[in-house]
Design goal:
Helices cover about 70% and strands about 5% of the residues. It contains eight helices and three strands. Strands 1-3-2 form a three-stranded mixed beta sheet.
């Protein structure tokens, strides 16, 4: 278990460092005001309109960095700061979330796969570690026994969260690429503002990368405990 705590500690530290850097980047680029004077909400609405998307609403949601696209009710949810502000950070986030709406409208396969995984992950993610640990406690190391198969079942449950994290990567990177391409093609931002938006989205993407690495590492650790302890 010591190795597990070291692994979790390392992942948590990396996540904290990236999250701290992300916040500092967004704070910095929030001071780069857009020359066109458009708010995040206005940018989102224009991007949707430019892609012919008429059935998605742009709404304000409480909190900081709580921005997301909800495919179930087709809403682009922008945090209060992003919704109202007129800076490079707001432009980046608003366009990125609309990038997900464009993915949905064009049936982007990775977004569809991630959406299908959501209900499964919601059920399995919170209990998988306990199922694996419980299986090990009742004798997984002894070989093919009840405990072993319980632990294997826990690994299968855990693997859904890992797959979800990996599938999230192309979804997020693609949304950012769509956002940046649109911002540049429509001259929504100046060159300086574009660089700020690009840098902000780059750091946002790294939070998902760290999460995916952490999920893979955790699954690998517990798989080693289950299969490495087996004796034929």
């Amino acid at each position: 278990m010591i190795g597990y705590y070291i692994l979790i500690g390392g992942i948590a530290l990396a996540s904290w460092l990236v999250s701290r850097k992300l916040k500092s980047k967004f704070e910095f680029y929030s001071k780069v005001h857009l020359r066109n004077g458009m708010s995040g909400a206005e940018i989102a609405e224009k991007m949707l309109a430019d892609h012919g998307i008429r059935d998605v609403k742009v709404i304000s949601t409480p909190g900081m960095l709580t921005d997301h696209y909800n495919p179930s009710n087709k809403t682009v949810n922008l945090s209060e700061g992003v919704y109202n502000q007129r800076n490079a950070s707001a432009a980046a986030v608003a366009a990125h979330e609309c990038g997900h709406a464009v993915q949905h409208a064009t049936a982007y396969q990775w977004l569809g796969l991630r959406s299908n995984l959501v209900p499964i992950v919601n059920v399995t993610s919170s209990m998988s570690i306990w199922v694996v640990f419980g299986g090990l406690m009742v004798g997984a190391a002894a070989g093919f026994g009840f405990g072993y198969w319980v632990a294997v079942a826990g690994l299968v449950m855990m693997s859904f969260a890992t797959i979800f994290s990996l599938v999230t990567l192309p979804v997020e990177y693609d949304a950012s690429n769509r956002a940046l391409a649109w911002l540049k093609a429509k001259n929504i931002v100046t060159q300086e503002e574009y660089k700020g938006s690009e840098d902000a989205l780059k750091w946002a993407a790294r939070t998902y990368l760290i999460a995916a690495i952490g999920s893979v590492a955790t699954l690998a650790y517990w798989a080693l405990q289950v299969f490495g302890g087996r004796r034929d």
